[in-house]
């Protein structure tokens, strides 16, 4: 039995992470605004002893050029802190993590919201810090355009300093480049001390911010070599901030499709792939590459040379690298990308998927995984029923929670 056990998060996303999940015959197209749907998913994950559920968020329709049916099924949804507050009342142990942007919030207000969720849930909250990379989001807040990448991260560093100071009850008062804060918070610490800090940036600025502030890092990597390089790089940066390697848990995204046989799992995946309209796949790819006119290039030709983005730099680099490495056309790349937005995809039996997860976990490329089911609830149910017991049988995953807070689950120190 392994003394070290992997961490598992469930990445919530309305009908599922596959771009065509809403077209699956058993999908619920209006799942994004059905609280009972989310309660069911959270309870399934909690029964399987997942560490956390995670809600991504964007302050705008990032995929605004995708056809209306797909956009509606993927984009409608609750504001995530409100949603997680509701889930806190319907669950007892599982962590509750939400994205919130440092570009379109103020630190005092955000600190107060997450501290409230942390107390409401008994110490199970976490904040996924993002800087927001979409011009569409910028337009919704009266900005003249997307701020430069370096400027967004400068603001994020100061934001993180202010918010952690508020949570950890350091001396009140901050007068900085971007923020002026006078008072301490009016909410006491939760049983875990402060919400868990999560980050997902993979640029140099993103990795440096994560090494400085994060407890958990979500990442995207197709190959073992990419995952290992990211893991080693980020862990090596921690010492500069007086931190130990185990102070940060790195959890790459994984999109598993599991069945009783490899052939059945492949058939499930192939059926989903057949549901992707080409224009939808290309539009999704365009949004992550920060290019508005990818559709003007021949769909069966290669990806054109692209300027470096001021948006999602790391995701753009990941996609371009895959296209060049595998010799993919725009159509092939779009169809592959549509399955999990650039994250690692694994198709097979419970044993085969457990083998893949175990290899990356034990060979130093991950501390756990952020699980991204292709469609809900079916693929989550299959993972919980088939893969989790196999990981438990191998001693790689818990059978019972170690404590009551998210920091307990993750093995993180209480701050302050």
From TrEMBL:
InterPro entries per the UniProt record, alphabetical: Diverse_substr_monoxygenases (IPR051260), Luciferase-like_dom (IPR011251), Luciferase-like_sf (IPR036661), NTA_MOA (IPR016215)
Classification via Gene3D superfamilies: Luciferase-like domain
EC numbers, comma separated: 1.-.-.-
Molecular function terms, GO-annotated: oxidoreductase activity
Family designation: Belongs to the NtaA/SnaA/DszA monooxygenase family.
Secretion signal, residue range per the UniProt entry: none
Protein name: LLM class flavin-dependent oxidoreductase
Pfam family, one: Bac_luciferase
Keywords: Flavoprotein, FMN, Monooxygenase, Oxidoreductase
Origin species: Mesorhizobium montanum
Annotated ranges, domain Luciferase-like: 18-365
Taxonomy, superkingdom: Bacteria
């Amino acid at each position: 039995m392994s003394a070290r056990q992997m961490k598992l998060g469930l990445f919530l996303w309305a009908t599922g992470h596959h771009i065509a999940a809403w077209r699956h015959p058993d999908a619920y197209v209006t799942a994004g605004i059905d609280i009972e749907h989310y309660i069911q998913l959270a309870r399934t994950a909690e029964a399987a002893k997942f560490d956390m559920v995670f809600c991504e968020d964007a302050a705008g329709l990032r995929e605004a050029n995708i056809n209306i049916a797909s956009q509606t099924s993927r984009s409608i949804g609750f504001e995530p802190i409100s949603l997680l507050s509701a889930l806190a009342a319907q669950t007892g142990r599982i962590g509750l993590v939400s994205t919130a942007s440092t570009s379109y919030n103020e630190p005092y207000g955000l600190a107060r919201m997450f501290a409230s969720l942390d107390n409401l849930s008994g110490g199970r909250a976490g904040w996924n810090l993002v800087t927001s990379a979409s011009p569409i989001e910028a337009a919704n807040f009266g900005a003249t355009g997307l701020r430069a990448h370096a400027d967004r991260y400068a603001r994020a560093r100061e934001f993180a300093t202010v918010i952690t100071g508020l949570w950890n009850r350091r001396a009140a008062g901050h007068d900085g480049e971007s923020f002026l804060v006078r008072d301490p918070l009016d909410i006491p610490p939760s049983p875990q001390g402060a919400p868990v800090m999560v980050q997902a940036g993979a640029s140099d600025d993103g990795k440096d911010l994560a090494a400085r502030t994060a407890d958990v890092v979500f990442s995207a990597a197709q190959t073992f070599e990419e995952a290992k390089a990211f893991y080693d790089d980020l862990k090596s940066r921690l010492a500069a901030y007086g931190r130990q390697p185990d102070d940060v848990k790195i959890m790459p995204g994984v999109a598993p499709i599991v069945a009783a046989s490899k052939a059945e799992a492949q058939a499930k995946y192939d059926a989903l792939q057949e549901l992707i309209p080409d224009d939808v796949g290309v539009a999704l790819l365009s949004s992550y590459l920060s290019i508005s006119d990818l559709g003007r290039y021949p769909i069966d030709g290669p990806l054109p040379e692209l300027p470096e983005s001021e948006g999602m730099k790391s995701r753009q680099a990941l996609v371009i690298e895959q296209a060049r490495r595998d010799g993919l056309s725009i159509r092939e790349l779009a169809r592959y990308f549509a399955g999990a937005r650039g994250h690692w995809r694994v198709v097979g039996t419970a044993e085969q998927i457990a083998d893949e997860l175990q290899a990356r976990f034990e060979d130093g490329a991950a501390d756990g995984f952020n699980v991204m089911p292709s469609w809900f609830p079916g693929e989550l149910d299959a993972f919980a029923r088939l893969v989790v017991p196999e990981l438990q049988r191998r001693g790689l995953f818990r059978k019972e929670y170690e404590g009551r807070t998210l920091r307990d689950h993750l093995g993180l120190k209480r701050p302050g």
